[in-house]
Amino acid sequence: MYSLAFMHFNTCHYVGSFPVLSLMVGAVVTRLVPLDETQANVTNIPGFEGLTLDQKRVLVASSMTFLVGIFQLAMGILQFGFIVVYLSDTLVSGFTTAAAVHILVSQLKFVLGLDVPGISGPLSIIYTLEKVFVQITSTNLCDLVMSIIIMVVVFIVKELNDRYKAKLPVPIPIEVIVTIIACGVSYGFNFNKIYNVDIVGEMVRGYEAPVAPNLEVLRESALEAFPTAIVGFAVAFSVAKVYSKKHDYIIDGNQELIAFGVSNIFGATFKSFAASTALSRTAVQESSGGKTQVAGLISAMMAMIVTLALGFLLEPLPRIHFIQSVLGALVIVNLKGMLMQFREIPYLWRKDTPDCVVWVVTCLSACLLGLDLGLAVGLGVELLTVIFRTQFPRCCLLANIQGTNLYRDRKDYTHIFEPKGVKIFKIPSPLFFANIEFFKEKLREAVGFNPLKILKKRNKALRKVRNLAKKSNYDITENGLWDLISTNDECSKATEELDELSNVEVIPSRWNLPASISFPRVDLHSLILDFSTVSFVDISAVKGLKLVLKEFLHIDVDVYIVSCDVYVLEKLHNCMFFDTEIQTSVFFPTLHDAVLHVLDKKNLDQRPNRLSMSTKL
After folding, report:
1. DSSP assignment, residue 249?
2. Which of 33, 58, 388, 573 is the most buried (most CB within 10 A)?
């Protein structure tokens, strides 16, 4: 049912049941219709009259599946598929690895032939392993030996298929061969009676008539249905993303949501189960050469033929084989790539530590807390790493590569040229409220001084000069303060000049002052800010940027901004960034233009030998 509906709407090529999703639906079924019906949470509701326990449970599962489909279809129509952009390759890798671990743990009870109930929710893996090890002495040896033999055979044949795939016309269908052999052995040796091995038993032929979902069940399962819809889609999309990269096709998140929504709604009317992706079936289909929706159609037709006509052939099949022997072998062989993704941890740690943290946290949280909570935790950690990278970017000072108009981090090159008195500072991230203070701190570290402190010290020196000017035995001229006797007219004129300077709280750096007055000087006359990687600024950043620019201007340091994006420039205009001190003339289209302008303005004759005269080089 699912494949027929799914193939008409999807952009990925794999659909099926998923163990963790089954556990999430099963938890609702157990809560609403427990084995002890006296503890049922839904009693005396329309549609439950005259139904057996199994029929009630099927109705609850199909009704919840219907609601899951409604949620997915609604999210697809409302274009909520954009959330897939937050599923990075690292997160998907950790998430799918955790999903594979969940499958392995959930299948242990079948391999060992133990009666362990399905457990969902946080720490479900721990509780499942605990129950398995408590009952380990009750292992059914026949089930265990059969499973081991099948897994070894499938593993070997799969390896041979991979090694000789160029010579084989088609891969050896080991799954079909093992299934037929297991049926024959079970039937011939009567495993059901001799070894007490459960078999599939009688299979009902055909399909039941479509039924409507139960409204009371929809109301009771709404809280669980939404995270189930999210997890089902996230798992399917994560697996699809892995194979889309391998086979180079595009997947659309919104289209996938619509496809799963329609498939679940359509399937639920025929009492089907919530669909996501079948990792084992996906691996089998992919390794067998199935790469399009046609493979899903063929699978659906084969399942329909078996359901309608050939179901009796599967009745003697041991359940352990049917569920685990083939499936377990496929998990080990076909999902070996996903399980071996653990090898990515050392590589990520060496190359990108934040990504490694995302991988480990996503995998561990998905394993321990469940895929729904684990996915939320992984997304949270991933967003935190993005905030960390943008809030604390790697700022640097740039220098010119000799003979070119290129400017790079001066730490990375040896043959560089830096004009005297010029600093070129680059911040490789947007400027916003969270990192504007970091920007100021790094800028001060780069230039080697705090302009605000320099300004305060100079103003302090200015006040001392004004006090000295009031004494008759001091004279102030443009060249400085001298301990000389001068006329009253000259002293008055100099005092008026100081009064004018005090209004802007600056003092000319050319003045010569007595030793008793400390006037800090800086060896920087021009500061160039490279905004080529600043994609946006907010109001807080505009205010902070304006403040820090004025601090430098007040100590006679010219500030220029280069390669500013047009939208950033528009934002600065809208936020009243420009005034009489900061004008649009400080903006330059390229870094090289700004450097040439500074050299011309300061009459630094260094360009012929060190810098190119034009930006065309």
Report:
1. -
2. 33
Q: Which residues pair with 449 in a beta bridge?
A: none
- Alpha carbon distance 315, 134 (integer Å): 31
Q: Which amino acid is at 409?
A: D
Scanning the structure block, which residue is given the tokens 């001190």?
581
Cβ atoms within 10 A of the Cβ of 250, count?
7
- In the numeric block, which tokens belong to residue 338? 């996903």
Paired with 422 in beta bridges are 526
- Non-local CB neighbours of 362 within 8 Å, separated by 6+ positions: 90, 91, 94, 95, 98, 374, 375, 377, 378, 381, 382
The DSSP symbol for 16 reads: B
Phi/psi at 603 (5° precision):
55, 45
DSSP string of 466-516, one letter each residue? HHHHTSTT-EEETTEEES----HHHHHHHHHHHHHHHHHT---TT-B--TT
Helix and strand counts by DSSP (H, E) for the chain? 26, 9
> Where do we find the tokens 């060992």?
112
Residue range 164-217, pLDDT digits in tens: 777 777 777 777 787 777 667 766 766 656 656 555 566 666 677 788 888 888
The CA distance from 339 to 332, in Å, is: 8
**Which tokens in the block code for residue 64?**
């919840």
- HSE (CB half, 13 Å, CA atoms) of 598? 30
CA-based end-to-end distance of the chain: 65
Q: Residue 343, Cβ neighbours under 10 Å: how many?
A: 8
Q: How confident is the model at residue 575 (pLDDT cuts 50, 70, 90)?
A: very high
pTM, entire model: 0.70
Ordered structural domains, the chain, with CATH: 1-388 (no CATH), 396-465+519-606 (3.30.750.24)
Burial code (b: 16+ CB inside 10 Å, e: under 16) for 169-199 equals eebeebbeebbeebbeebbeeebbeebebbb
Cα–Cα distance measured from residue 399 to residue 175, given in angstroms and rounded to the nearest whole number: 63
Run of H or E residues at 560: strand 558-562
Residue 335's contacts (CB-CB under 8 Å, 6 or more residues apart) are 100, 103, 279, 280, 283
* SS3 assignment for 127-168: HHHHHHHHCHHHCCHHHHHHHHHHHHHHHHHHHHHHHCCCCC
**Percent of the chain with pLDDT strictly greater than 70:** 71
- Tell me the per-residue pLDDT of 374-408, one tens digit each, with 9 for 90 and over: 888 999 999 999 888 888 999 999 999 888 889 99
- In one-letter notation, the amino acid at residue 403 is G
Which among 256, 209, 278, 212 is positioned nearest to 67, based on CA atoms? 212
Q: What tokens appear for 173 in the block?
A: 């269908």
For residues 97-106, one letter each, b for 16 or more C-beta atoms within 10 angstroms of the residue's C-beta and e for the rest, the string is bbbbbbbbbb
CA distances in angstroms from 432 to 519, 538, 602, listed in the order given? 35, 5, 33
SS3 content of the chain, % helix, strand, coil (to 5): 60, 5, 30
How far is the C-alpha of 58 from the C-alpha of 37, rounded, in Å? 15
CA 63 to CA 24: how far, in whole Å?
14
- Give CA–CA dist 15/240, Å, rounded: 10
Predicted local confidence at residue 328, as pLDDT: 59
- Crossing angle (nearest 10°) for helices 89-112 and 124-134: 20
